[in-house]
Design brief:
With about 50 residues, the chain is α+β, with helices and mostly antiparallel strands. The chain has helices at about 30-35, 40-50; strands at about 5-10, 15-20. Helices cover about 35% and strands about 25% of the residues. A two-stranded antiparallel ribbon has the order 1-2.
Length: about 50
């Protein structure tokens, strides 16, 4: 059985982005698109990961 985690991000204007994690790598392009959607810089993302 595979564990799936769900992360919800809500923008200030009410838009939401949902990210499902499956313990698999995602492409850099998809990661940058997600970060752009939630208005999070790569640096901010790296700080949150630690």
């Amino acid at each position: 059985m595979q564990k799936v985690h769900t992360c919800f991000f809500v923008n200030e204007d009410g838009r939401t982005t949902v990210i499902l994690t499956h313990n698999k790598d995602i492409s850099k392009g998809l990661l940058r698109k997600i970060l752009n959607d939630v208005q999070l810089s790569v640096e901010e993302y790296e700080k949150l990961r630690k």
